[in-house]
Specification:
118 residues, elongated, 6 helices, mainly alpha
Length: 118
């Protein structure tokens, strides 16, 4: 869940790319006027992705944001919404990587078998 080295760096780059793509996948202004919470939530989601905090949950939120954008915009901006869907899905399944606050908070744990009682 927290790979280091090249894989961890790749996941950090994926998180940064998803944050940038998500910032550009904002729906049209007509939908935003009815959703006053949209922009603060988007800023928090992008910041959490950059830092690697609660990455699977934020990735799930990114999937929801991209789905709303895809359904509201239709054929106008489908490429960016599909890109966000794919990146967020991959990040949600793979995890944040070693270079994230999730790795620092939850860390790697070594599970050792118990000695038999007797």
């Amino acid at each position: 869940m927290f790979p280091a080295g090249g894989a961890g760096l790749g996941l950090a780059l994926l998180r940064c790319g998803l944050a940038l793509a998500l910032a550009g996948a904002v729906p049209s202004a007509s939908l935003l006027t009815s959703l006053a919470w949209w922009m603060p939530a988007l800023v928090l989601a992008c910041g959490a992705l950059l830092l690697g905090v609660l990455t699977p949950l934020v990735s799930l939120a990114a999937v929801a944001i991209a789905a709303v954008t895809l359904l509201s915009e239709g054929a106008d901006r489908w490429e960016q919404s599909v890109l966000v869907l794919l990146m967020a899905g991959a990040l949600m399944l793979i995890g944040p990587g070693a270079y994230s606050l999730d790795a620092r908070i939850y860390g790697r744990h070594r599970v050792l078998p118990r000695k038999p009682r007797g």
